[in-house]
Design goal:
The chain has 348 residues and is α/β, with parallel strands linked by helices. 48% of the residues lie in helices and 15% in strands. The protein has 13 helices and ten strands. Helix 1 crosses helix 6, helix 2 runs antiparallel to helix 5 and helix 3 crosses helix 4. The structure holds S-adenosylmethionine. S-adenosylmethionine (SAM) binds next to helix 8 and helix 10.
């Protein structure tokens, strides 16, 4: 039996593919560069004025030789601007907005911290491909928890109080007057704390099964002066305590749960009669063919390392019956990196 001859390589297609590889390889190692830049305050220092590598090193108390190399990588990647006449480096307004302003809605370094933390799980996840075993959120590198909070918080700060909550029927009024709110799967509590600061007459309960995140959330509540109206507790989405919540929210975590339908049933029984549930989830199309774009690649890759292993690790008994939703006001918000939709009513 002869083997069929392989078709000749199309050199143009091969070169295009190699070009893509070089871009991706640079982006992969660039992840570490951004984390270093943020950790050492290099972006923030550069945002103040144009500097040589020596000036930046002096200002940030770092070693000039390392800083010079870092600056070169940043400039080649388009994250830093270089003036070849003065040999000084700076950030444009847009670079500073995304890399040096922690309160900007497009603050990006958290995403790289999240990516770097997730990649630490690669050896274990490779094993999981053979065994199907899960890996809980709590088993990841700390960078995952910090990066997640850092990356998601600016989006919540830009949208949650100013546009998502006002778009929900009657919820804003209830929160202003004093409501009971549960934030389920709250992580380090960024969304809970933003709501607590905006609605001082309401009482907030943040739940997450991850102890370390809850500890961090409690510390933030104290630091931000809202510990009197916010309680953070370790609890699973299917078991959190309390009833008669006027508003329950889940931010970017329903898809991480092994039994989202069981969690939904628990939310329903915890809501007051006219309560509202808001589900915030990353936007994706239903069909693979419609997600084959850069955002789809980001989502599927994070999902392989974080979300799928998390839910795989929780596959106990799964509930059933989405019809349960029909008796509650359910709204869905779909986010994309750097933005999101307004809440859309998903039930009667
Ligand atoms: C992607 S993080 C989102 C955290 C937070 N809501 C935010 O938006 O920053 C997913 C969170 O879901 C939590 N989680 C996963 N499964 C859970 C479950 N069954 N019950 C409660 N929390 C869960 C994880 O511990 C993690 O904090």
């Amino acid at each position: 039996m002869g083997t069929a001859p392989r078709p000749a390589l199309d050199m143009d297609k091969l070169n295009a593919f190699i070009g893509k590889f070089v871009t991706d390889l640079g982006a992969a190692v660039h992840t570490g560069m951004v984390v270093i830049g943020e950790k050492l305050g290099l972006y923030k220092a550069l945002a103040t004025e144009a500097m040589s590598s020596a000036e930046l090193a002096a200002k940030t108390q770092t070693d000039e030789r390392y800083v010079r190399e870092w600056l070169a990588s940043q400039t080649a990647g388009g994250y830093v601007t270089y003036d070849e006449k003065t040999h000084k480096f700076s950030l444009s307004e847009e670079q500073a907005f995304a890399l040096a302003q922690e309160d900007s809605p497009a603050y990006l370094p958290g995403a790289f911290e999240l990516a770097l933390g997730s990649l630490a799980a690669v050896p274990r996840i490779a094993d999981s491909f053979r065994t199907g075993a899960g890996m809980g959120w709590h088993e990841h590198d700390d960078g995952v928890f910090h990066g997640c909070e850092k990356f998601f918080r600016p989006g919540y700060a830009a949208n949650l109080v100013s546009s998502w909550i006002p778009a929900l029927q009657e919820v804003q009024q209830k929160l202003v007057e004093g409501a009971r709110v549960a934030d389920v799967g709250c992580g380090k509590g960024a969304s809970t704390l933003l709501m607590a600061k905006a609605f001082p007459k309401s009482r907030f309960f943040g739940f997450d099964y991850h102890e370390k995140s809850i500890e961090g959330a409690r510390e933030s509540a104290k630091r931000e002066g809202v510990a009197d109206r916010v309680t953070f507790e370790v609890a699973k989405a299917k078991e959190y305590p309390g009833k008669n919540y006027d508003f329950v929210a889940v931010f970017d975590c329903l898809h991480d749960m092994g039994d989202p339908i069981g969690s939904a049933a628990h939310v329903l029984q915890s809501l007051s009669k006219d309560g509202t549930w808001m589900i915030v989830e990353p936007f994706a199309n239903d069909q693979l063919k419609d997600n084959l774009n850069p955002v789809g690649r980001v989502y599927y890759s994070f999902s392989t390392l974080l979300c799928t292993p998390c839910s795989q690790g929780q596959l106990e008994s799964c509930g059933s019956g989405l019809l349960l939703f029909l008796d509650a006001a359910v709204y869905a918000v779909f986010t994309v990196p750097g933005g999101g939709s307004l809440p859309r009513r998903a039930s009667r």
